[in-house]
């Protein structure tokens, strides 16, 4: 087995740091609704793929979180705003977005959705509330995302 020389090790280290920092740069900044994140579910990050979201194409939102309690069920309420005006709201069964029961510890909630081709490009804000099956709020977060100019009605 060949041992890399010092310049090769330095280059490999720099490349690793660049790859790691570029993957972290794609995570969206999350804000808690209460300002402090005093919830049973703490969100550590949101990754959106593709980013920006393409109109008329599937987009996946992956939310990495940790909980200090077991969760057997519940719901997600998602509100989407465009320039501060609510343009969409939907409710999902929590167990359709993550495997239930959710044990205390780390988990990833993943949701894929295709936005209509006529969705205006620009900056949006998504607010997500998570409740357990007893209607107790587990978390409430918001984050921004962008819809690009990529696809249009003519692409259909």
Short description:
This protein is about 15% helix and about 45% strand.
Layout of strands and helices, then pairs:
Blueprint: H1 6-25, E1 27-28, E2 31-32, E3 41-49, E4 58-67, E5 74-82, E6 85-93, H2 94-97, E7 105-114, E8 122-132, E9 137-147
Antiparallel strand pairs: 1-3, 2-9, 3-4, 4-7, 5-6, 5-8, 8-9
Give a description of the structure.
This protein is α+β, with helices and mostly antiparallel strands and 156 residues long. It has a single domain (27-155), classed as Immunoglobulin-like (Sandwich). The chain is 15% helix and 47% strand. It contains 2 helices and 9 strands; from the N terminus they run αββββββαβββ. It has helices at 6-25, 94-97; strands at residues 27-28, 31-32, 41-49, 58-67, 74-82, 85-93, 105-114, 122-132, 137-147. The chain has a 5-stranded antiparallel beta sheet with strand order 2-9-8-5-6. A 4-stranded antiparallel beta sheet has the order 1-3-4-7. The longest helix has 20 residues, at 6-25. The chain is globular. The N and C termini lie far apart (53 Å).
